[in-house]
Amino acid sequence: MKQPFYKKPLQIKVKYFSNIEPLTKISKGDWIDLRSAIDVDLRKGEYFLIPLGVGMKLPEGYEANPVPRSSTYKNFGIIQTNHFGVIDNSFSGNLDQWHFPALAMRDTTIKKNDRICQFRIQEVMPDVELITVDELDEVSRGGIGSTGKN
Length: 150
Ligand SMILES: O=c1ccn([C@H]2C[C@H](O)[C@@H](COP(=O)(O)OP(=O)(O)OP(=O)(O)O)O2)c(=O)[nH]1
Prior knowledge:
single chain, 10 strands, globular, binds deoxyuridine-5'-triphosphate, dUTPase_trimeric, dUTP diphosphatase, dUTPase-like
């Protein structure tokens, strides 16, 4: 959802750890692409934390979620091992550089500045209290997959 015109955009402080291209919002959408900060060769089956060249101070009450781009696997043959990244608001120290945890499914080369993933921010979960109980609802749904295929 777009911000109403009278609301100021939320500010995100970005620290660059290397001379990669500056981040910009993607032209057709609301996510922000992230770039590899280095050239890296990976062998099939290899795991490597690819530095993304940035660290950020997010607005209070927000976290960031990096995910692969839809084209990441086709272009680079890598999978993001945590699938849906969670960057905590407190990950904002001077050395807290964002990384992409990559698993190479084939031999591959990623070049510095290649756009390998994207992120957005979203509000953190509200305060919750975890309460241990003996019973939940009486009516169970019948197990995973019990509603069928169609
Ligand atoms: O894709 C990701 C996910 C996380 N992080 C950074 C920011 C995050 O705040 C920190 C820790 O992430 P997470 O809590 O998911 O990992 P953990 O395995 O629980 O590590 P920790 O013990 O540091 O919390 O690592 C990244 O750079 N990239």
